[in-house]
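A.,

Following up on our hallway conversation. Structure tokens first:
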């Protein structure tokens, strides 16, 4: 078998602070991220690299050990040291006792709507290293105004223009701690305890947690196959005296519906006519390209736009943001000052590095590509079921079930077999009727093999009444 040629890699390390071995490991991370060292590249031997860099063999050994600890490289006896695919850190799923388990004997968890992070680990490491070398890092880490540091707000404005086709000045952007923090801040600015908040008939569970904390009463608004009904919004607002609506116009969670331009315009017109503030959650919007016009772009005077980098980049960055009408800025700033004091933090600095370098856009594109791959796999495994309601651009499936299958029994049966999914009940509001459906997330597991086996369990529970009688009525 032919072995790959060893690359003559000679990183520049003299400008890097700290011990030499860490500087070499940081250079590895950076060159893997920028493509200088593609996956599968065989690295120089310890002795050769030590000679080239004029350091000891022990320094190279420590550098390679650090890089291996980070999942960047791996050694193979008799073959050498290679740039590795982070996915190989996860062992394939094995069958044990009738359940599908991973190497840690955990579930195949298809209930969390995460986005795969492993392809972009090198980019994150490189951005973190770059952030550490910023000459203004100490200034960015000092107390900021409640609105956030102008430099970081400018990066978010650039990101919104590229990912959401939303063009706003940096002065219109407010930083928050994650999407949940942005949502809490926005709702706190336009509601008081005891108020009614209109929401879609099926809504994001995190919103319900915020509403409970703020003492808000949720009223669901009917949807059809095309999403939220503007006329129903107006009727519900007048009936219940509501002054705010929370919604996801693009790739709604859980239904995956994207509102048409006509409905977006109608919703803005309703908001202006009856004095309704729209809270637009666009956390999945980066997946839908070309991006449809946001509610904020159509009605900036009646829309608070909230989102984060949790789905598009990394949840651990805890970088959320709000764009809203100027008259609300003082109120929003007061809430941010009271809750987080100053929202700028190290995660936002790293996020700015990713955005300014152009790496954020490349990460988003990789996410879109992987979503398409996972959606294709899911539609192959579940080809006998109705997936026409699911937009293939998003990270999960919304699967309506036949009348013969109860959603609660399907969820229970899957869990007994080591697969976790979410019933439509998890998204319902109040005591209204809930669609007989489940949400299946596609990106929370690293290996396609894990996903395929989990989906096969679900397929078997729906289609085979003999083997899975518990899921049938």
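Then the amino acids I'd put at each of the 473 positions:
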């Amino acid at each position: 078998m032919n072995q790959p040629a060893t690359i003559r890699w000679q990183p520049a390390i003299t400008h890097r602070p700290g011990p030499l071995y860490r500087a070499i490991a940081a250079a590895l991370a950076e060159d893997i991220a920028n493509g200088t060292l593609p996956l599968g590249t065989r690295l120089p031997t310890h002795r050769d690299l030590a000679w080239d860099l004029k350091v000891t063999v022990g320094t190279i050994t420590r550098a390679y050990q650090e890089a291996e600890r980070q999942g960047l490289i791996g050694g193979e006896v008799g073959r050498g040291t290679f740039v590795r695919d982070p996915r190989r850190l996860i062992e394939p799923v094995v069958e044990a006792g009738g359940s599908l388990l991973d190497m840690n004997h955990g579930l195949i968890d298809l209930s969390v709507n995460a986005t795969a992070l492993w392809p972009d680990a090198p980019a994150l490491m490189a951005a973190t290293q770059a952030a550490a070398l910023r000459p203004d890092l100490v200034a960015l880490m000092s107390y900021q105004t409640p609105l956030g540091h102008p430099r970081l707000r400018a990066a978010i404005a650039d990101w919104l223009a590229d990912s959401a086709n939303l063009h706003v000045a940096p002065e219109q952007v407010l930083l928050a701690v994650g999407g949940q923090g942005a949502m809490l801040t926005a709702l706190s600015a336009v509601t008081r305890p005891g108020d009614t908040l209109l929401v879609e008939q099926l809504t994001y569970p995190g919103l319900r947690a915020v509403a409970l904390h703020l003492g808000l009463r949720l009223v669901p608004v009917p949807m059809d196959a095309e999403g939220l009904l503007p006329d129903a919004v107006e009727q519900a607002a007048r009936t219940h005296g509501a002054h705010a609506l929370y919604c996801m116009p693009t790739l709604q969670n859980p239904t995956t519906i994207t509102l048409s331009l006509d409905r977006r315009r109608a919703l803005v017109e309703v908001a202006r006519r009856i004095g309704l503030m729209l809270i637009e959650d666009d956390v999945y919007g980066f997946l839908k390209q070309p991006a449809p016009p946001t509610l904020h772009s159509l009605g900036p005077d009646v829309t608070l736009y909230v989102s984060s980098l949790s789905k598009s980049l990394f949840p651990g960055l805890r970088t959320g943001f709000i764009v809203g009408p100027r008259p609300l800025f003082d109120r929003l700033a007061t809430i941010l000052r009271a809750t987080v004091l100053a929202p700028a933090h190290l995660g936002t600095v790293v996020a700015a590095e990713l955005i300014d370098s152009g790496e954020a856009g490349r990460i988003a594109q990789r996410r879109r590509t992987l979503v398409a791959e996972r959606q294709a796999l899911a539609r192959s495994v579940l080809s006998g079921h109705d997936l026409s309601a699911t937009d293939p651009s998003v990270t999960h499936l919304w699967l309506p079930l036949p009348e013969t299958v109860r959603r609660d029994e399907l969820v229970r049966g899957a869990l007994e077999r080591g697969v976790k999914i979410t019933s439509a009940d998890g998204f319902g509001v109040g005591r209204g009727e809930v669609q007989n459906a489940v949400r299946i997330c596609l990106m929370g597991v690293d290996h396609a093999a894990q996903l395929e086996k989990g989906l096969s369990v679900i397929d078997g529970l729906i289609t085979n009444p003999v083997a899975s009688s518990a899921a049938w009525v």
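Residues 359-381 form the longest helix (23 residues). Curious whether your intuition agrees with the design.

B.
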